Amino acid sequence: MSTTSWPEARRIASGSAIPLPLTRVPLAQAHGMVLGESLSALVDLPPFATSAMDGWAVAGPGPWKITGQVLAGQQPTRIGDGEAVEIATGARVPSGAEAVLRRERGFVDEHDRLHVGDGEDTPGPAAVPPARQRMYGSPPGTVATRTPRGSELGLPIGTDIRPQGQESRRGETLLSAGTRITPAVLGLAAAAGYDDLPVHERPRVTLLVIGDELAESGLPDGSRVRDALGPMFTAWLDALGVETTVARVADDAGQLLAAVASSPADLVITTGGTARGPVDHVHGVLAELGAGLLVDGVAVRPGHPMLLAQHGGTRHHRRFVAGLPGNPLAAVAGFVTLVRPLLRRLSGLDGPVGALGAASHFLPLGDAVRTHPTDTRLVPVSFADACAVPLRFTGPAMLRGLALADGLAVVPPGGGVVALGAGQRVEVLAV
Ligand SMILES: Nc1nc2c(c(=O)[nH]1)N[C@H]1C(S)=C(S)[C@@H](COP(=O)(O)OP(=O)(O)OC[C@H]3O[C@@H](n4cnc5c(N)ncnc54)[C@H](O)[C@@H]3O)O[C@H]1N2
Ligand code: MOO
């Protein structure tokens, strides 16, 4: 199989996956998953008119007689013209009330009567600045500009009341299918009345870290190096909302074969062993499993030995193996090129095609970058002054530059051109 261009490899990874089936999970388990159906409000938001401020709910023109108190969570009773109740932020506004006078804009006289003002200066009509009246908008169907009646000195109707349905009407679509469930989405879903959510199943990944030379803890010694990829990809996969199992595998074909064959995961990721060295077993094991190679080598630097294969599974539930090269930055190149686009599609994310891997930015380069004649380069960059500035320490075996990076700049093959100049716009992949 011949080497695949980098853009094509990214497309193949995304295009080969089918979104996982739908299920329902409680809110507490949904973080990082992806909505399988659009989310509509189960109630009006807010579900009833609430006070936006601590103060008094008032009816009719003032001064007002204070008849009681309503706190958040309580059911108020109706008030009539000339009456007021003390009210807390978020409490249900009693029927009959037309506005809320916030505490700092009113005072109660010695006869328990409520007035606009601070009790010292004569209050003016500017007590409620007109700008406030426009801040929240009105719910559909209400008349925003009734003649102000609820005032003794300019307290317009609706002041500091959050009308029922101001944010959303019941049944209104809040979020579309394919949206990632962030903490904010969980909060909105709870506010809108949900206990569980329709989601795509969470992709399951087995991460197989291959290499006899790898130590899991302690200082690297004369012949062993620390496993950098296990900790890095475990965290990264977690951030992608994936359920990950990690296993260490020796440079042994039998062990690798058993580990891949026994994995129940949607995607097995291997690190190392992709080249043609004496103990590089990934290709041999995939051949023995009868796996179909979708990508076998990509025209990208670093990371060109990366591969993607399909094995087992069914027509509706495909299973994949992504082989990432052992050199750490090359493994990251494989992750952003093959693994992330594949997982996004499996998860049910409905991103634009330009964001196959994750949200990408397009930025001008802050400095010239050398091109490769035939291969795409992925270059760690930091963002400064709205430019992507290439970093140092970005050899295939290094992570020092990447650890400072805001993204990976995609530098297309140069052909006859040896460098991309400062100011040229490039795609930058999130890292
Ligand atoms: N004759 C050739 N040799 C190599 C070629 C080539 O085209 N011809 N390609 C080179 C490139 S490019 C890469 S990348 C590597 C890919 O090698 P493998 O995927 O087989 O990886 P290993 O040989 O197992 O390891 C390479 C390197 O990476 C270190 N490594 C591996 N796993 C980890 C880990 N979890 N944490 C930290 N470091 C890791 C490993 O110790 C090696 O130093 O092949 C080149 N060779
Ligand atoms: O994939 Mo290798 O050098 O390109 O690290």
UniProtKB/TrEMBL annotation:
Catalysis performed (reactions): adenylyl-molybdopterin + molybdate = Mo-molybdopterin + AMP + H(+)
Pathway: Cofactor biosynthesis; molybdopterin biosynthesis
Cofactor(s) the protein requires to work: Mg(2+)
Annotated EC: 2.10.1.1
One of the Pfam families matching this protein, by short name: MoeA_C
Region (Disordered): 113-169
InterPro entries, sorted: MoaB/Mog-like_dom_sf, MoaB/Mog_dom, MoeA-like, MoeA_C_domain_IV, MoeA_C_domain_IV_sf, MoeA_linker/N, MoeA_linker/N_sf
Residues of the MoaB/Mog domain: 206-345
Signal peptide coordinates: none
UniProt keywords, alphabetically: Magnesium, Metal-binding, Molybdenum, Molybdenum cofactor biosynthesis, Transferase
Stated family: Belongs to the MoeA family.
Matches recorded under PANTHER family: GEPHYRIN, MOLYBDOPTERIN BIOSYNTHESIS PROTEIN
Biological role: Catalyzes the insertion of molybdate into adenylated molybdopterin with the concomitant release of AMP.
Name recorded for this polypeptide: Molybdopterin molybdenumtransferase
Organism, scientific name: Catenulispora subtropica
